[in-house]
Protein 1
Amino acid sequence: MEEIRCGWVSDDPLYREYHDKVWGRPVYDPKELFAKLCLDGQQAGLSWITILKKQQNYEQAFANFEPEVIAGFDEAKVEELMLNPGIVRNRLKVNSIIKNAKGYLAYTADGKDFSAFLWSFVGGKPIVNQFTAISQVPAQTPESEAMSKALKKLGFNFVGPTICYAFMQAVGMVNDHLVECISYQACVDSCTVQHNHD
C-alpha cells in the first residue's frame, strides 16, 4: 500500500524526514520553540525547504539559538552574518533574530514560561483538525492572529499571523496533517502521551 503524505511534501528525503518525524509533533521546550519561531520568520517569502536546508548553518551562526548570546550581537556581528553564505542574507531577517532574543529575555526575566505563553493560545493542548484536502488548511486563524499581536507587543518581529500559523502547525499546536496522511495518527497519539505525562 502506498504511503500517503500531506500534499506539500516533495520527494526530497530531508523534507520527507521533516514531515514524518518533526512537523506537527508537539514541542514544549521554550528554547526549542524560540528557535523554531525564529526559523519560521526566516521563511517569509521563501519556501520552508530553503530554510530547512540551512537550519544547521543557522544553528552555527546564531549560537544554537541561545537567546542570551544572540541578544549581545552587535553591529560588527551583524556585518559578519551578512557575509555568511549559509543563511538568508537579509539584514531585516538577521536583525529580527536579535530582536526576538531580546524580546524572549525580557519576557522570561521574571521567571515567566515562554512555552506556557505560546501554548496558551491553543488552550495548552493541540488543536486536532480533520482536514481531508490541502485546500481546507487555513493560512492563518484567530489563534495565530492573537499570538502574532502578543509577540509583537513583546518586541518580536517577522511574526505575522501567517508565520505564527506555520509555526503552530510545525510545533504541534495544531495538527494539520491530512487525515489520510501517515503522520496524522502519530501526532494525535503523541499529544495524548504528552498529556498523560504532564
Protein 2
Amino acid sequence: MTPSKNLLAILTELTADAQQIDQAQLEQVQELILKAKRVFIAGAGRSGFAARAFSNRLMHLGFTVYFVGEPTTPSIRENDLIIIGSGSGRTEGLVNMAKKAKSEKAQLATITIHPKNPIGTMADALIQIPGISTGDKATEKAPSIQPNGSSFEQLSWVVYDSMIVDLKKKMKQEQTDMDYRHANLE
C-alpha cells in the first residue's frame, strides 16, 4: 500500500493550522450558545455545508436551532444567537444577515479567517481560523496544495465538532440522548 501524498499533506496542514486556534475563542462562542434562546446558523457555499452540519449536531444536543435560508426558519429576535461561518468575513448576503441580527438585538458569533472584515467587527465573539479565502492576496501563511478556502472549510468543520464535544460534556448529554434526537424518518 502506498499512502496518498495529497491526503497526508492536507492533514499536516490542518494539524498545523489547528495549533493556531485559541481555545478561549471557542469557549466564548460556546457560552453564547448555552445562553441563547435559539441558535441560528448561516454560511454560504462550502462553508455553508460545514455550518449546516454544525446546526444538525446542535439539534442532536437538544438546542432549538435553525439553518438560515430554510423555509421553516423563523425571524431572529433579542436573546437569539446567529453564528456565521465566513472565511472572508465579507460575503454580502452574510454581512446583511449579521446587520439584521444585530438590529434585532441578537448576539452574533463568527468563524472567519478575517476578523477585521465586516462580520468580524460586528461579532460579539469570534473564532479566527488561519487560511486563505477566495480572492485573498498572498499572505504569510504557507501555500496550500488545495484551492483557496478548502483548509478553512475543512478546519471549520473540525472546530464545530470540537465545540460539540465540549457542549455535550457541559450539558451532561450522553450519546443515547443525541441518538434519540437523530432523524428517524430516513
